[in-house]
Amino acid sequence: MLRIESSGRQQLCDGMNRRRFIEVGSLSAFGLGLGLSGLLKHEATAAESGTFQQQSKRSVIMIWQHGGPSQLDTFDMKPLAPAEIRGPWQPIASSLPGLDVSELCPEQAKVMDKCSVIRSFSHGNGDHWAAAHWMLTGRLGANGSDRAPRQPSMGAVASHLLGPRLPGALTSVNMNDGGFGYHGGAWMGVARNPFRYGEFSYGNEAGRLPTGDHKSFSLSDGLTQDRVMNRVALQNQMDQLKRKIDTFSTFDQLDDVDSQALDILMSGRTREAFNLDAEDQKTRDRYGEGWGEQALLARRLVEAGVRFVSLNTGYWDDHSNIKRGLDSKMPRHDRAVGVLIQDLADRGMLDDTLVISAGEFGRTPKINGNAGRDHWPQAQSILLSGGGYRHGQVIGSTNANAEYPTSRPVGVEDFCAIVYRALGLNVDDTIIDPSGRPVHLLPSGVVPRELI
User: What is the mean pLDDT of residues 422-430?
Assistant: First the structure.
């Protein structure tokens, strides 16, 4: 039996265990069964129901900094401010004239001419769960005392409306879980949850999303590829018999989808994307281990046709000893992001791939009594590259202490509009909510004119 494994033990509403829900099933005369094949059927249905898929050739790599990164210690440094404001690191020049970044970010400094930094991103919600839900879905809903996701993520909406960028690929992949659980489908259902890779959950406050993971690409129950292909041959013979009494195109469609599922499991582009050993050693060395290796995987997944990849790097909620925290994780994050952007550019992929790095809010301008920074939603710096946008610029500004925007404020719905537009979607496009009513992808939101 071929399975997509999941560690979740919860039951679905019909009593089916989540582990069983994502099982591909035996390759019997009745086909591949529920799971990856079913996921592809959903995506095929979405593609047939609209014209979005034919309009969009772009993908998104969302690098999510769970907990909230500090604007003052990355892209909005204030070297003339008092020590308790400016922090312990020095600014360095970047490839974008006039933009200095933290000395912790040398790899990102090299590619700033290919990026836009929004310094004036701002909203008013300092609750981790409420802010993360808002940014990842475009709508408020969850909060710290009621944490369940209320709305589908942007990745889930892309899965629903667009499907994968190339036929037979996965639509969305989420690396390292992300902690809050808002990368999933919510009321759109388990089929819209991203495929999971990586074991770091960074707090795992909301529990893991029920979904398949990278162990899907192994054969279980003693099956060899020869035995699988023998079963496929038997299935094909039985299907030929069924077609003789079927006057419609049902089986033709099932054959196409099941072939895609089998291709992914056995030898397809998506399965091969997970094989990092196929990458040349020089490239692997550039990315490095850990998050760097996962950033390389993100690039390979996009090449294989995946529409939306989320890469969660670390836990950025540094209420105490921010120097120790950022000295540890920022160089690894910086290498992953900077090398990814340069690699995409070198391969001619950057224009068709939006890379975006953000968390749910920024950090307090003044370092607290525990040598850390607290929640500060009034100002945050967001990094963008690629996606068909105009780059090599800084958008907006903050006051002398990076407390609030002084020009060109950008809000949450604007952030989501940037992501959707890169995918060929508009804020006024609609989906059908659980009550059967059409709703816009976002209640509002405008892409900053500087990017267009």
Answer: 97
